[in-house]
Amino acid sequence: MDGSAAASAAAGDGGGGGGSKKEESLPPGFRFHPTDEELITYYLRQKIADGSFTARAIAEVDLNKCEPWDLP
Questions:
Q1: Residue 61: closest CA among 48, 71, 52, 51
Q2: Which of 12, 14, 33, 54 has its CA 20 to 30 A from that of 62?
Q3: Whole-number pLDDT of residue 37
């Protein structure tokens, strides 16, 4: 998949349906399968550049108060 196709596909609604024009113009059997580089370049970089985006990659947990099977 080239960069423009990845950008077009990444700009879609995430495959949740809806039948947008972009989805209708794709050939039958098209599968969204971006490379790691395309995900970082076109999706994740824009996500972290957004000032309102907050995410915690690793949750803080008191291991003395949790059973191993209850860990997040």
A1: 71
A2: 54
A3: 92
Count CB atoms within 10 A of the CB of residue 9: 22
Q: How many CB atoms lie within 10 A of CB 11?
A: 13
The DSSP secondary-structure symbol of 51 reads: T
Burial level of 6, CB count in 10 A (0-12/13-18/19+)? Answer: buried
List alpha helices for the chain, DSSP H: 3-10, 21-24, 36-39, 45-49
Q: What pLDDT does 35 receive?
A: 92
> What range defines the domain where residue 72 resides?
1-72
Length of the chain measured in residues: 72
Report the percentage of the chain scoring pLDDT > 90: 4
State both tokens at 67.
């059973």
- How many domains are contained in the chain? 1
